[in-house]
Design a protein that fits this description.
The protein has about 170 residues and is α/β, with parallel strands linked by helices. The chain contains 5 helices and 6 strands; from the N terminus they run E-H-E-H-E-H-E-H-E-H-E. The chain is globular and about 45 Å long.
Length: about 170
């Protein structure tokens, strides 16, 4: 059984909204690793991501890396759970993003597919699922796209929000 207090979710914009500058991207990756490590030290053992390219897959990749290097003296079992809004989600993505998506899902501890086909509201359903099962959310929120819905929903549900966006 997953306990909400030990769970964390990720929410962020697509790859187009991530830093283009190599140094800024490295800084973002460092900050994500730092927050994931802090969460693990505080007892987080379950990480939910929305299975979209961009920030979601970046965070998932870092969690998978952390799973492989968890300190031997303080071993912890952590889980990565993909919450897929609909089964055909990556159908129109470019080949690089599709390959990363399927490679990441293959390494997840669980893949939850909420809908077989796309329908209006399926992304919000995914976001609510992740927030409802988390006590903390790490996001990359610049004020645009679908992330405002998730951030507002998390605030309403008293989920701690850590926004890694920097101008």
């Amino acid at each position: 059984m997953v306990f909400k207090k030990n769970s964390l979710s990720f929410s962020g914009n697509s790859k187009q909204s991530l830093p283009k500058n190599k140094d800024k991207m490295q800084k973002l990756k460092f900050r994500i690793r730092e927050q994931i490590d802090k969460a693990i030290k505080e007892g987080a053992d379950t990480f939910y991501f929305g299975a979209c390219y961009g920030f979601d897959l970046l965070c998932a990749e870092i969690v998978l890396m952390r799973k492989r290097v968890i300190h031997i003296l303080e071993p912890r079992v952590i889980k990565l759970i993909a919450v897929v809004p609909y089964e055909e989600q990556p159908k129109n993505w470019n080949e690089v993003n599709r390959e990363l998506y399927f490679a990441t899902l293959a390494q997840c501890d669980e893949v939850i597919i909420l809908n077989a086909k796309y329908h209006q509201g399926c992304f919000h359903r995914r976001d609510r699922y992740m927030v409802d099962n988390s006590s903390k959310m790490i996001c990359y929120f610049d004020g645009s796209k679908g992330t405002p819905y998730t951030v507002k929903y998390a605030e309403k549900n008293k989920v701690q929000i850590i926004n890694l966006y920097e101008t």
